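Ticket opened by: R.M.
Priority: normal
Category: complex prediction / small molecule

The reporter submitted a protein together with copper (II) ion and asked that the result be attached to this ticket for the collaborator who will pick it up next week. Submitted input follows.
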Amino acid sequence: MSEEKKQESKPKPCCVCKPEKSARDECLLINGVDSPKCEPLIAAYKTCMKGFGFEI
Ligand SMILES: [Cu+2]
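Result attached by the on-call engineer:
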């Protein structure tokens, strides 16, 4: 993608927090979206995204 280079200082949401995202996604997949089990993982992902300036 050509936009990728211009935004090097600010990464895209899809390029950051990948381990946190996959952990969250896997949890949601296994336990379902309403499972409280995944709340810490969702929180960890949000915190990580926030660190990169993304409010989700
Ligand atoms: Cu990306």
